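Below is how a single chain appears once it has passed through the pipeline. First comes the sequence as given, then the structure the pipeline wrote out for it. We keep one example in the README because the format questions we get most often are answered faster by looking than by reading.
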Amino acid sequence: MKIAGNVLVALVALLHIGFLVLEMFLWTTPFGMKTFGTTAELAQASKALAANQGLYNGFLAAGLIWGLTTKERATAIKVFFLACVIVAGVFGAATAKTSILFVQALPAALALVAVLAGRR
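Resulting structure:
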């Protein structure tokens, strides 16, 4: 189960790297606007906010990667950052778009279960 947990943590980290790219670099492109359902005007007006949000997603990915690559307190690091992702996903689902629950929080919750199961 430890390997499954690490694979799921890596997938969550990759998702957040993808969110970083979308929010920091592709926000005002046709692909970014289609992905987030924004207009050109709204995308341009919210570009700085999206970049800030993307940076935070990058920090989440960095923390998960740290948990995967360290020997000391690896489980605690992974649990902490997965919990952060879950909280962010639940908050995003409650305040922005319900699908965030399934795209962000659910994968992190599955990874968290696997990480906790793998520590035995």
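Residues 2-118 form one domain.

See the next section for the split statistics.
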